[in-house]
Amino acid sequence: MKVVVINPNTPFLINEKVFPNIGAVRVATALSKEHDVEFIDLAGRNDGEEVMKQIAHKYDCYLFTSTTPAFPYTYTLFKRLKITNPKAKTIIGGAHASAISSLRRRGIKDINIERLEEFDTIFEGEGEDITNIFTPGWQKGKLIHNIDTTPIPNWGFIDPKSYVYNMNGRRTTNIQTQRGCPYQCTFCCGRDIEMYNKVRSHSPERVLQEMDLLHKKYGFSSFMWYDDEIGVDINRLEILCKELEKRKYQHRGFVRSDIVVKHPEIVEWLKKAGFVKLCVGVESGSDRVLKIIKKGVTSEMNLQARRIIGNAGIHYEAFTLLGLPTETEEDVQMTKEWLLKAKPDDFDINVVTPYPGSKIYDDSVPSNRFKKYGWVYRKLYFNKSDYSQTQSFYKGIGGKSAVDTRTETMTSERLHQLREEIQCIK
């Protein structure tokens, strides 16, 4: 068949052309073994609807990928295609489809289920198992246990040079050396989704093979690791770091404070391997809140990890959140005090966004406590939006955010005000 994979535009982002959607490229790579596949990358473009009109009769099947915040734009492209060619066969995949599929299996009613059913196929999964990807209705790909069996994504489907991210003056691209995260943070989208909560790792040999290919073919020598937590498998990490010492690559990745504190030696491994930036999900300065969200760390652990990473001469970046379940202004003040004490090299602070796939969203219950908010999870109040129509993102152009939540004591307006105040301490 003639198949097209469509990556939507996401104009709310500060810059759409930072890192390519390699998940969608993986799907195109897998499909190309059996079909004639093209890839339309609309990132950074504003002519998507016109493109849909032009290609409406060109392909046998149209495969859209989408995250939840990108879905309003994906849905607009889908509707334009259907207006031009009502008989066009369509598939929706990606994180949004997988999260809503999980809700549906649990019997949780949600307006977004109906929106997705406008597509011929709703596909949940990683997409490299394409056995039933063209079968109508709700479909699920098999979990890929040995991800080394998957082909290296074919970057020929996109224009790598059109994506620009510089780290310490070097062109940087994204790579994923493992999939899944075993931790249970309640705000994270994926705790109820198999492919996101089951850890599977590429072998060190496969990681090096992919990095070397990106270096040789496209000139990349700097990599942003999209692994949720690079320290899950300590033994594998040690082997991989020793091999990376032999190359002049540099890296940025995500680590957990508890792993750093328990195994401080990994920071030295990472330093020698070329890691110049490490990011940590600090989330809150309140131990009570950290326990509520099942983070599995304490504020003191976060502080210790900051010192260990800083002492190794690695740039330390903290990610923090406001509006977490049961949070009060006193808790917010603790987060501010932690930042002032830790003095991270950089930090990000945003209002928590309850998305499908997170415990906050999936386990919430109806509420009439506050007029504007119909759902609640542990005193965090929000609405379940129709994501085909509603903007929802935690950080966009100009630092703006489209998040409408509140706690028992803090309104949405107050949460955004506190965010701006804390942001100013940089």
Structure description:
With 426 residues, the protein is of the alpha/beta class. It folds into two domains: 2-128, Rossmann fold (3-Layer(aba) Sandwich); 165-423, Alpha-Beta Barrel (TIM Barrel), CATH 3.20.20. Helix content is 34%, strand content 21%. It has 15 helices and 19 strands. It has a seven-stranded mixed sheet. Strands 2-1-3-4-5-6 form a six-stranded parallel sheet, sandwiched between helices. Strand 17 (373-377) and strand 18 form a beta hairpin. The protein is globular. The N and C termini lie far apart (53 Å). The model has no long low-confidence stretch (mean pLDDT 96).
The coarse overall form would be: globular
- Largest sheet properties: 7 strands, mixed
Mean pLDDT figure: 96
Helix % is 25-40%
Secondary structure: number of strands: 19
Which percent band covers the strand fraction?
15-25%
Distance between the termini: 53 Å
How many separate domains? 2
Output the CATH class name of the largest domain: Alpha Beta
Q: What is the SS-derived class?
A: alpha/beta
CATH architecture name of the largest domain: Alpha-Beta Barrel
- Rg estimate, integer Å: 22 Å
Unreliable spans: none
Strand adjacency order, main sheet: 7-8-11-12-13-14-15
Helices, by number, come to: 15
